Amino acid sequence: MPPAISADLRRVAFILAAAMIAGAVLGSVLAGLAAGLALVLGLQFRELWLLHRWVHRNGERPARRVGLLGDVSNRLDRLQRQARKRKKRLRKSVQRFRQASEANPDGAVMLEADGRIEWLNRSAGRLLGLKPAQDTGQIISNLVRHPRFAAWFDGDPAREPFEMDSPAAEGQRLLLRVVPFGESRRMLLVRDITRLHTLEQMRRDFVANVSHELRSPLTVVMGDLEIMSGDTDLPDGWRRPVARMTEQAARMSRIVEDLLRLSRIESDPGGAARQPVQVADMIAAILRDAARLSTSRHEMIVEADPSLILLGDYGELYSALSNIVFNAVQYTPAGGRVTVRWLALEEGACCEVEDTGVGIEAHHIPRLTERFYRVDKARSRELGGTGLGLAIVKHALMRHDAGLHVTSEPGEGSTFRCVFPADRVQRIERDAAGDAAAEDSGGERGLSAAL
Ligand code: ADP
What we know:
By secondary structure, the protein is an alpha+beta fold. The protein has helices at residues 3-26, 29-57, 67-103, 122-128, 132-135, 140-143, 149-154, 194-230, 236-267, 279-294, 314-330, 377-382, 389-398, 430-439; strands at 107-111, 117-120, 162-165, 173-181, 185-192, 275-278, 299-304, 308-312, 337-345, 348-355, 403-409, 413-421, 425-427. It is elongated and about 155 Å long. Bound molecules: adenosine-5'-diphosphate.
């Protein structure tokens, strides 16, 4: 028998025996037994009450440590002490975590599922201009004052980081990232990238300045070479070197122009303009140029929806799409096919350029948009490529919140897809699209006020 029960039984037996003896002395054993039972009940009830008070109201712990109730109270006391120790340990580790987070120069904002601020460290407050005391519980996109922050945050922020100027300190550049955790919580991480941004800016300025400085001497050299190659008195021995020099000068000039174009696109902060652009017309214009490049060696197919209008910058879009189409022509052997499509998607619209050309091996694909990255350097050079085309495409598309997706099979061909988000796409009536296309006879400009 467990010792707790035998202690209880011993106590009950002792009280009842004492009560019965007292009853016998006083003349009624039964009355003594009844009084004994009442005393046992009363004592049990009192102990239960003390236990209840201790557990529920943090009263004093019952004095009795033996018997069943004593055993329960001992166990509860042990559990309570263990819980208190655990709580203390937990509080200390939360404190340590908070101290570490406060010491972190990067900002961290803990967010609830609906974007409400649950907690933020000091750096986040300093970088984003938030005040922990008054901004906790507020929706973050209502507090961070930046034209594109809310659009990024309300979209799919975990997909891509976001760069912006600090709303709290002038000249400070921030990189924001969202990391999901728990069931539906999110952590917004904010990093000060001012130094990196300044260095990047210096690099861009340097490249832009060098390119700019090279432009004028190159123009002079090219002009002189042109005169020389047209000179009938030029000695025959000079013809080949002059032709080679002309070719190389033209290549340098293309590189300089592409570098300048790239630095112009890169250095313009914010997204691209939102002018309505008739993409179907733009594709027609690009294909006219591509046909000159192809010299009828390729079959060209267009499937463009004229009622789909893109809100963007005409020049940048032309530059991006023409680069992709010209590449398709150049990397497709004679007799191949180039198909250009412009169509609506569930998530927006897509301009797709498919060719039946040489294709690209899978491991090259992620690096294609790096500056000067070429799968086959000699071939690119031979075709007059600069290695900057797809870098321009990537930046121009980024400024239109669009993505570039490449699929390719070596020897079979490649498909380059530019996917534009729904908020940059508009649909106009078929008639209006036709009229606009007719009015816009050159097809070189976007639609205007009609939209
Ligand atoms: P380039 O001026 O050399 O064409 P790009 O940046 O436009 O430079 O393209 C980078 C590289 O990607 C090219 O050198 C080429 O190897 C590859 N590439 C681009 N488009 C295609 C395509 N349609 N088919 C096969 N390879 C391609």
